[in-house]
């Protein structure tokens, strides 16, 4: 026996321009019927949270699927899969498409060449699928935008849940983030980790979906923005704080990547904060109480 529940949607052209659209969602469990062989023209993420089964790729290679696991169904790629004969499996699936899928693939969040991905935990992804299912109620006026936004969240949850990534983050990425503002080249960073530049590129691409240069640059520019917004340090001093000895080069780089010069960014974002900004991230579920002084 098995149980199947599913809904399908037809977002309009304006929703597609948001980047991602959700085309359907489903929750199934038990000894489900075999799927395929077939080929789709959209993406599907299938999260198997319990049980086991098998997956047959376009080359005829058979892979055993053991929960928790993710199945990627990619447009134009034949696939064939099924739950195990004894007890089946428990799955949640989301059908999606849109121009942003190309970028998510480039960043490594969608992996067409890796149709079966072991997960360390399916809880986060299943929670997102559950929210999509609840949003799919009949007559929800926010359906297309709400479910489309949740697809972005689902891709992040699936990336975080990959079993080949450490739960607390890649140690190489954490070390790069810690040392990002030191005046070191990519080759210098690689040497500090006992790696070649090519090995470092592979590690960063796998963990962050970008090159080491872009990863370091994002952290440096973020720190530069904080200094420009919260301090009165000259631009040259800000440049040195984030690893650039040449303030003119820093200004050109900042302008090219941010879209405005450092001085203009400061003019728009500067906040005078006595004692500086707090480094403690506030808990959104437990905001600090603000005492109001009664009016005289």
What does this structure look like?
This protein has eleven helices and nine strands. With 296 residues, the chain is of the alpha+beta class. Strands 1, 2, 3, 4, 5, 6, 7, 8 and 9 form a nine-stranded antiparallel beta sheet that branches. A hairpin with a 5-residue loop joins β4 (43-56) and β5. α8 (212-230) crosses α11. It is globular, with a radius of gyration of 24 Å.
Provide the fold topology.
Elements: E1 2-8, H1 13-16, E2 21-30, E3 35-38, E4 43-56, E5 62-66, E6 69-73, E7 79-83, E8 89-97, H2 100-106, E9 116-118, H3 123-135, H4 143-160, H5 171-179, H6 186-192, H7 197-208, H8 212-230, H9 235-241, H10 247-258, H11 262-269
Antiparallel strand pairs: 1-2, 2-8, 3-7, 4-5, 4-6, 4-7, 4-8, 6-9
Helix pairs in contact: 3-4, 8-11, 9-10
Sum this structure up briefly:
With 296 residues, the chain is α+β, with helices and mostly antiparallel strands. The protein has helices at 13-16, 100-106, 123-135, 143-160, 171-179, 186-192, 197-208, 212-230, 235-241, 247-258, 262-269; strands at residues 2-8, 21-30, 35-38, 43-56, 62-66, 69-73, 79-83, 89-97, 116-118.
Provide tags for this entry.
296 residues, alpha+beta, 9-stranded antiparallel beta sheet, 11 helices, 39% helix
Helix content: 25-40%
Total helical elements: 11
Largest sheet: 9 strands, antiparallel
Q: Structural class, from secondary structure content?
A: alpha+beta
Cα Rg:
24 Å
């Amino acid at each position: 026996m098995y149980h199947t529940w599913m809904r399908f949607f037809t977002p309009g052209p304006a929703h597609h321009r948001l980047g991602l659209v959700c085309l359907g969602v489903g929750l199934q469990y038990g000894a489900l019927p075999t799927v395929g062989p077939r080929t789709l023209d959209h993406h599907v993420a299938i999260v198997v949270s319990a049980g086991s089964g098998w997956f047959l790729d376009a080359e005829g290679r058979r892979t055993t699927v053991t929960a928790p696991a993710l199945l990627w169904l990619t447009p134009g790629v034949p696939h064939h899969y099924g739950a195990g004969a004894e007890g089946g499996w428990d799955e949640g699936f989301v059908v999606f498409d849109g121009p942003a899928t190309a970028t998510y693939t480039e960043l490594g969040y969608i992996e067409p060449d890796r149709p079966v991905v072991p997960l360390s935990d399916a809880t986060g992804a299943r929670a997102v699928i559950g929210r999509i299912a609840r949003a799919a109620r009949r007559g929800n006026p926010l359906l297309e935008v709400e479910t489309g936004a949740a697809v972005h969240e689902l891709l992040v949850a699936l990336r975080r849940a990959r079993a080949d990534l450490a739960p607390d983050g890649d140690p190489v990425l954490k070390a790069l983030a810690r040392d990002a503002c030191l005046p070191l080249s990519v080759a210098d960073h690689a040497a500090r980790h006992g790696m070649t530049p090519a090995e470092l590129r592979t590690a960063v691409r796998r963990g962050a979906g970008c090159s080491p240069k872009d990863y370091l640059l994002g952290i440096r520019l973020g720190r530069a923005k904080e200094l420009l917004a919260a301090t009165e340090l000259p631009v040259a001093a800000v440049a040195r704080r984030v690893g650039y000895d040449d303030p003119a080069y820093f200004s050109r780089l900042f302008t090219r990547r941010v879209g405005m010069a450092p001085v203009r960014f400061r003019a728009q974002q500067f906040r005078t904060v006595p004692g500086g900004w707090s480094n403690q991230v506030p808990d959104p579920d437990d905001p600090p109480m603000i005492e109001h002084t009664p009016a005289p």
